[in-house]
Specification:
The chain is of the alpha/beta class. It has one domain: RutC-like (60s Ribosomal Protein L30, Chain: A, 2-Layer Sandwich), CATH 3.30.1330. The chain contains two helices and five strands; from the N terminus they run βαβαβββ. The chain has helices at residues 17-34, 58-63, and strands spanning 2-11, 42-49, 73-77, 88-97, 107-108. It has a five-stranded mixed β-sheet with strand order 3-2-4-1-5. Helix 2 (58-63) links the parallel strand 2 (42-49) and strand 3 (73-77). The longest helix has 18 residues, at 17-34. It holds the Pfam family CM_1. Prephenate binds at residues 7, 90, 108. Its EC number is 5.4.99.5. This is chorismate mutase.
Length: 121
């Protein structure tokens, strides 16, 4: 097995705790399912948010997923670059897997599909 990085991003409509938690959970679950990754395969999860998200820690959503309680998760803020996408949650999930790098399925939801149109299927 090799450690691979799975990328994903999503956006929310407003900085609301429930929106942050629901969007994060949906994104992480789709990332894991699309790549057949189980919680015990996950090395760590790094989540960044744009500075306009302050209502909740997205890591809370990850730890609340069945079987994910002990997955190491860390949150940080994304760089505040002029013209950057607002209300955006980005995830980098490190997992032990046998999938070749070119076959990893990266997940972009909502407005975040604009971040990596080259990865859209």
């Amino acid at each position: 097995m090799t450690v691979r990085g799975l990328r994903g991003a999503t956006t929310i409509k407003s900085d609301d705790e429930q929106d942050v938690l629901q969007a994060t959970e949906a994104l992480v679950q789709e990332m894991a399912q699309a790549n057949n990754v189980l919680p015990e395969d996950i090395v760590s999860v790094l989540i960044s948010t744009t500075a306009d998200i302050q209502s909740a820690f997205p890591a809370k959503a990850v730890r609340s997923i069945e079987g994910w309680k002990y997955v190491p998760v860390m949150c940080t803020h994304e760089m505040n670059v002029p013209g950057g996408m607002p209300l955006c949650i980005r995830v980098l999930l490190h997992a032990n897997c046998t999938i070749p790098q070119k076959n990893i399925i990266h997940i972009y939801q909502n407005e975040a599909v604009k971040l990596r149109p080259d990865l859209q299927k």
